[in-house]
Design brief:
This protein is an alpha/beta fold. The protein is built from five helices and eight strands. It is globular. The structure holds zinc ion (ZN). The site of zinc ion has 4 residues, from helix 3.
Amino acid sequence: MTVVFYAIGCSATKEPEIQKNYQLYLESQDPTAQTKLRDLIARFNTVAGFIALNYTDSDEGDVSRVHLATILDDGAAAGQGGGREKFQYEEQANRGDYLPVRMKTMELWFTFEAFFEYPVEENWLVFCHEIGHGLEMMHSANPKSIMYSGNYETKTAEWDIFFDRVRAYFSDDFQDWATYEQSHPGV
Ligand SMILES: [Zn+2]
């Protein structure tokens, strides 16, 4: 399943099309790190049930960048990881016309410790948490939420709710998280 979403509408309005086609590019040539990122992406897509994330070796175009660092302290990324959504704009040919395209990308940070040294399930949880930010999710006050900011208990984490949200984010009728949470309280 190719996950490229087009806003359906009258082209005369010139409403920007939104594409959620995340190409994750690792800012490191370390083959071990590249393999690790590929494995995390594959696991994420398997659990999600569709291709939500892609791995790319090329940093050209609207890629989502993944950074590894010893310490994260620049505000956007603190603690063991960081993630944020990022929008890029470009004009792109479409159906013989030029319509504005809004490319959604994300930017992710991980400490070397969180990326390489955490136990598998904790590394997985940090990865999913930061991807969640990349998909515009905010922190949750629920300690079982993947989007909780604090000490995690991976065994009781509410994975089903998280991946329901991931699938909702990529669905055609997704508007924003505030709208989603009106019909899905308590996440
Ligand atoms: Zn967070």
